[in-house]
Amino acid sequence: MVLGAGQPSADGADRLVVKVTRRYRIRHATTYSYGSAMTDGYTVGVLAPRNTAHQRVRSYRLEVDPEADELDERVDQFGNRITQLGLHHPHERLEVVSVAEVDVDSPDEPRDDRPWEEVVEIASALTGDDAIEIRPFRAPSRHVDLVAGGALGRLVGETMIPGEGIVDAARRLCTTIFETFEFDPTFTEVSTPVAQVAEARRGVCQDFAHLALAVLRSVGLPARYVSGYIETEAPAGSERLVGADASHAWCAVWTPGDGWIDLDPTNGHLPVSRHVTVAWGRDYADVAPVRGVVIGPASEQRLDVAVDVASEAL
Predict the structure, then answer these.
(1) What is the 3-class SS of the chain, one letter each residue?
(2) In this structure, are residues 81 and 50 in contact, taking their beta carbons and an 8 Å threshold?
(3) pLDDT in tens, 31-88
(4) Is the pLDDT of residue 10 over 70?
(5) Number of domains the chain contains
(6) In a shared domain, residues 138 and 258
(7) Alpha carbon of 141 to those of 49, 59, 138, 144, 285: distances in Å?
(8) CATH at residue 224
């Protein structure tokens, strides 16, 4: 724990900021079971946590069973580590296990108070390397439609108040989704349009991240999708179950003063807390944790995912 320098509060007085670093240990196991032996298979994983200004990867390894015939790693256009593996022999199951240890500092409180419209103007005028980094996150993408009519348009009007500071506007959006949308894992699939999520006001974390992205990008703000993990807590009186956690998704909005500010509309957090960042992209399609294809006889397939996130304060 570190006592940080004083920061000015609303009344102009300095306040003491307590900075905490937590060490996270993550195990993410994805298991495919097939009714018949598959003869070939290709899998792509985006599972390696990345280093950021507030996060340091102490260790990471990927375990594959059965052993892969091909195993390659590359870095994509956003700086994420992508693993590609191939199995070219008969197999009735495939298990991909990611194991990581990561130190994460508590986030700084964002302080950029310029109006969000001014941020739009600044983002529009970027050139060179800044434009290459920022501008892709202002455009529509596979899962983020910027059509601002209907329920999505109403949400834009409800949250993006003219003249409001960029941080306050992002916090209003985050809070509105958290307080007025229902978490419902039975309602959506990966392909559910964001407009349908806005209309029904229900979905899961990736839906709420896409929804926030649609609102922010619809007014011209740069916003990116973030994948990773969040540590969950067991209900009062219950033991914490190993493997009962899950991968998580949130988003980040760019400001000239603070850079990328993470916000988690599923949990109402801005800035985020107890989150471990794995990757970021335009939407889920860029950073799906595990995806692939298999070749073999038609048969039943079963997917099991077990995630365990544990932490301690340093």
Answers:
(1) CEECCCEECCCCCEECCEECEEEEEEEEEEEEEEEEEECEEEEEECCCCCCECCEEEEEEEEEEECCCCEEEEEECCCCCEEEEEEECCCEEEEEEEEEEEEEEECCCCCCCCCEHHHHHHHHHCCCHHHHHHHHHHHCCECCECCCCCHHHHHHHHHHCCCCCEHHHHHHHHHHHHHHHCEECCCCCCCCCCHHHHHHHCEECHHHHHHHHHHHHHHCCCCEEEEEEEECCCCCCCCCCCCCEECEEEEEEEEECCCEEEEEECCCCECCCCCEEEEEEECCHHHHCCEEEEEECCCCCEEEEEEEEEEEEEC
(2) yes
(3) 999 999 999 999 999 999 999 999 999 999 999 999 999 999 999 999 999 999 999 9
(4) no
(5) 2
(6) yes
(7) 23, 33, 9, 5, 9
(8) 3.10.620.30
CA dist., res. 184 & res. 202, Å (int): 6
99 shares its domain with 17: yes
Check whether residue 190 and residue 134 sit in a common domain.
yes
Q: Which residue type occupies 109?
A: E
For residue 69, what are the domain limits?
2-105+289-295+306-313
Radius of gyration of the chain from Cα atoms?
A: 21
Distance CA 27, CA 310 (A): 9
In terms of Cα–Cα distance, which of 31, 37, 83 is closest to 295? Answer: 37
| CATH classification of the domain holding 85 | 2.60.40.2250
pLDDT digits (tens, 9 = 90+) for 77-95: 999 999 999 999 999 999 9
Tokens of 14: 């300095």
